[in-house]
Design brief:
The complex is a heterodimer.
Chain A: H1 5-14, H2 21-38, H3 73-77, E1 83-84, E2 87-88
Antiparallel strand pairs in A: 1-2
Chain B: H1 6-14, H2 20-38, E1 41-43, H3 46-61, E2 72-76, H4 103-110, E3 114-119, H5 153-160, E4 166-171, H6 177-183, E5 186-189, E6 209-214, H7 217-227, E7 257-261, H8 271-286, E8 290-294, H9 302-317, H10 336-347, H11 350-362, H12 369-389, E9 395-399, H13 415-420, H14 426-431, E10 435-442, E11 448-455, H15 460-473
Parallel strand pairs in B: 2-3, 2-4, 7-8, 7-9
Antiparallel strand pairs in B: 1-3, 4-6, 5-6, 5-10, 9-11, 10-11
Helix pairs in contact in B: 2-3, 5-6, 7-15, 9-11, 9-12
The chains are: A mainly alpha, B alpha/beta.
């Protein structure tokens, strides 16, 4: 695999992680080293093997589509000070 | 008193030899004296803690309560606890006071246990040395120049230094067992799905599992009795018969078949660790166990597979930290995207960012099949190796870690070297099996060595039995670091 410095910027953008030039260069070196560790797994023949997403391979549990939570809006909004009239404040999105 | 088992503490409380407030104050005083150096706790709140102790005393006075009523337990700072600052070791949550309790916290509260404080940990549980915490490194009480292991390093140090009667941890790739081994305590990661993940801040959801950390297998059994149980709020919580994990502790081990995977004794294993593990196997033979050679041929792939799957799940789980509803928000920004990027860049530490980057890449268009899907397929091969091995044996044993505790700063600059320290523990998480570590000797440097015991699915009671019987004929689990003695 060949991960370029351009790829590093692209991943950082996708992950919404601001990154300086120096940080990107450091990340590039370390990611190359980590991906060389990961590369070992590429050579394994996995033809016919089903992917395993959970340890127990259980089916997803379902429940009735009814409201079970009580309204705790004020309590949950107490975790930030960026609140006005019960709404979260963010920079203007629509011009 | 600080060397009492949980059963002994429970007896002392019920027979009024000591009150919960007195016992709790004893630990709070020890924390005040030793924590400035060890840094095992991120948050201590005497007022809230003593209020719980007083409530426990009231219960005990009425002759009510259970095995853990009035006993001070330290909680890893990954568990949301109502009214408690819950940081997950991160600047991102450094001011987050949880509005609700995790299932594990609810269970301990219901049992009348006292929350002694929130223990230090690697940021978002990503690390093997407790050096990635925003709240500073934790020191190993056996030697302050060495790491306690991670990510539950604060809990391991707190138990080893007698700064709590017991503690909780979480284990995604070894984060209970590795610090337990390096600090000379006992720790158990249950079968995936046995303990609810509700309110436990998510790292890699298909691998994360909470478990107890304590001085002995007997203590672990009492703690697991409180922690385990079905919870509908965790979609992967498993409905199974209520088990008393202490029920089999005293069963004899004659006829027990121990599997030794040859891959766990190959190159890379420290000679002193190998000697200690061999000596403990010899002890098990004396107890009537037989030994069979087994093989886990795909276990060498567990690190590459883990470093695809865990970061992929982490990058998704950690996308919720955007500075909007809770957590750190950058002080200055120009627009919404800039707010996200600056809040996350400033709020997350280096290792967390590194894993988000890996995860984002392996899940991105064009790479998904080559990385994520391939890793999930090999995960099945790794799990299959274990089920083949369990056809020949009842438990699998080996070292928990390749070496005793390494020095602070030793592996900090090289993520790959750090990742390799979890070589024996990660495969167990990938397979979803229960695993534990118990003290099994001291290495050349006088530092603790851990014996790993891996069981089949839902076989925790047997593993605890196996560990307890060893602890009846050895005293490694009672050893304590010299300079923390009271």
């Amino acid at each position: 695999m060949s991960l370029s410095i351009g790829d590093v910027y692209k991943i950082a953008r996708l992950a919404r992680l601001g990154m300086t030039e120096q940080e990107a260069e450091e990340a590039h070196t370390q990611l190359l080293s980590i991906f060389s560790l990961i590369a070992e797994m590429q050579a394994v023949d996995t033809t016919g093997i089903l992917p395993m997403s959970h340890a127990q391979d259980l089916t997803q549990r379902l429940r009735e589509d009814v409201v079970t939570e009580k309204d705790q809006r004020e309590l949950f909004q107490s975790t930030t000070s960026h609140i006005k009239n019960g709404l979260y404040l963010v920079p203007q999105v629509i011009e | 008193m600080i060397n009492f088992s949980l059963l002994q503490l429970g007896d002392a409380l019920r027979s009024k030899k000591i009150s919960s407030v007195e016992l709790t104050q004893l630990y709070l005083d020890r924390i005040a004296a030793l924590n400035p150096e060890l840094n095992a706790y991120i948050t201590v709140n005497e007022e809230m803690t003593l209020a719980q102790a007083r409530a426990a005393d009231a219960q005990l006075k009425q002759g009510e309560g259970g095995a853990l009523t009035g006993i001070p337990v330290a909680q890893k700072d990954i568990f949301c606890a109502a009214g408690w600052r819950t940081t997950c070791g991160s600047k991102m949550l450094s001011n987050f006071v949880s509005p609700y309790d995790a299932h594990v916290i609810e269970q301990f509260n219901r049992a009348g246990a006292v929350n002694l404080g929130k223990t230090n940990m690697d940021e978002f549980a990503m690390g093997s040395s407790n050096e990635t915490s925003y709240f500073g490194i934790v020191k190993n009480p056996w030697n302050h120049k060495t790491v306690p292991g991670g990510s539950s390093g604060g809990s391991a140090t707190a138990v080893a230094a007698r700064l709590c009667a017991a503690a909780t941890g979480t284990d995604t790739g070894g984060s209970i067992r590795q610090p337990a081994a390096l600090c000379g305590i006992s720790g158990l990661k249950p079968t995936y799905g046995v303990v609810s993940r509700y309110g436990m801040i998510a790292f890699a959801s298909s691998l994360d599992q909470a478990g107890p950390m304590a001085h002995s297998a007997e203590d672990l059994a009492l703690l697991l009795n409180v922690m385990a149980g079905f919870d509908e709020r965790d979609s992967t919580s498993i409905k199974c018969e209520t088990t008393d994990y202490a029920q089999d502790l005293s069963k004899p081990l004659s006829g027990l078949r121990i599997g030794l995977p040859k891959e766990f004794f190959a190159a890379g294993l420290g000679a002193d660790v190998a000697r200690a593990i061999e000596a403990s196997i010899a002890e098990y033979r004396k107890l009537g166990a037989t030994v069979v050679d087994v093989s886990l041929p795909n276990s060498r792939l567990s690190i590459p597979v883990y470093y695809v799957l865990a970061p992929a799940e982490a990058s998704s789980n950690l996308s919720r930290f955007d500075g909007v509803r809770y957590g750190y928000r950058a002080p200055e920004y120009t627009n919404l995207a800039d707010m996200y990027e600056k809040s996350r860049a400033q709020g997350f530490g280096e290792e967390v960012k590194r894993r988000i980057m890996i995860g984002t890449y392996v899940l991105s268009h064009g790479y998904y099949d080559a990385y994520y899907l391939q890793a999930q397929k090999i995960r099945r091969l790794i799990a299959q190796d274990f089920s083949d091995a369990f056809k020949q044996c009842d438990v699998i044993m080996g070292p928990t870690t390749p070496t005793t505790a390494f020095n602070l700063g030793e592996k900090g600059d090289d993520p790959v070297q750090m990742y390799l320290s979890d070589i024996y523990t990660i495969a167990v998480n990938l397979a979803g099996l229960p695993g534990m570590s118990i003290p099994a000797g001291l290495g050349d440097s006088g530092m603790p060595i851990g014996l790993q015991i891996i069981g089949n699915y839902f076989d925790e009671a047997r593993m605890l039995n196996v560990a307890h019987q060893y602890q009846q004929v050895t005293d490694w689990h009672t050893r304590m670091p010299q300079h923390v003695k009271a």
